[in-house]
Amino acid sequence: TKPGTGYPTDWENQKRWNGGWVRKGGKLQPKQGAKWRILANIFGNPDLPEIDDYYEPFDFDYDHLKSAPEMTAFPTARPRSKISGERMEKIEKGPNWEEILGGEFSKRSKDYNFEGIQKDIYGQYENTFMMYLPRLCEHCINPTCAASCPSGAIYKR
Fold first, then answer.
1. How would you class 3 by CB atoms within 10 Å of its CB: exposed for 0-12, middle for 13-18, buried for 19 or more?
2. How far, in Å, CA of 34 to CA of 39, rounded?
3. In this structure, are residues 62 and 77 in contact, taking their beta carbons and an 8 Å threshold?
4. Mean pLDDT (whole number) for 88-92
5. In angstroms, rounded to a whole number, what is the distance separating the alpha carbons of residues 14 and 139?
6. Cα(97)–Cα(53) distance, rounded to whole angstroms?
7. 150 upstream amide cis, omega within 30 of 0
8. Are 78 and 146 part of one and the same domain?
């Protein structure tokens, strides 16, 4: 089990990234081609993930917290793109995004590994006894859910 499509998005899809191996003349060769093709694409490989397959790198506008004028509402540190410097309205994804949030099955079902599987039946089966927990609940000093769980499930991530 895994909580999402992975990072970068859909990284296990060998068809999309032209990865894996093929047998030619009884020998295994990389699917991308012979050494000369791989060498020819060393500075511009068309099979590598792009920035949209990862996430838009961002940082928070901490300067606004220090320099904001006095107002009725508290100032907030909004995300800013490290690529364009523009303010981002919403953070869509990032590293460990699904793992931290424990994504629902409708998002995870888009994974390449579910190709050819009856997703509805698998989702119902999974939802009968499995629940993705966030990576580790760090809100409580001594969480009762961790103390009362006989299998220690929260620590198995």
1. buried
2. 9
3. yes
4. 88
5. 39
6. 13
7. no
8. no
What's the rounded Cα separation, in Å, for the pair 4 and 20?
22
Answer yes or no: do 62 and 99 share one domain.
Answer: no
For 93, the token pair is 């994804």
Could you tell me the two tokens for 113?
């590994």
DSSP 3-state of 9: coil
Model confidence pTM above 0.70: no
- Stated as kind and residue range, the H or E segment containing 133 is none
Name the residue with higher pLDDT: 35 or 26. 26
For residue 51, what is the DSSP state?
G
Q: Which of 39, 70, 91 is the last residue of a domain?
A: 91
Residue-number span of the structural domain to which 70 is assigned: 56-91
Distance CA 157, CA 149 (A): 14
Are residues 82 and 125 located together in one domain of the fold?
A: no
Q: Residue 81 has what pLDDT?
A: 92
Distance CA 1, CA 105 (A): 11
What are the φ and ψ backbone dihedral angles of 18, each rounded to 5 degrees?
55, 45
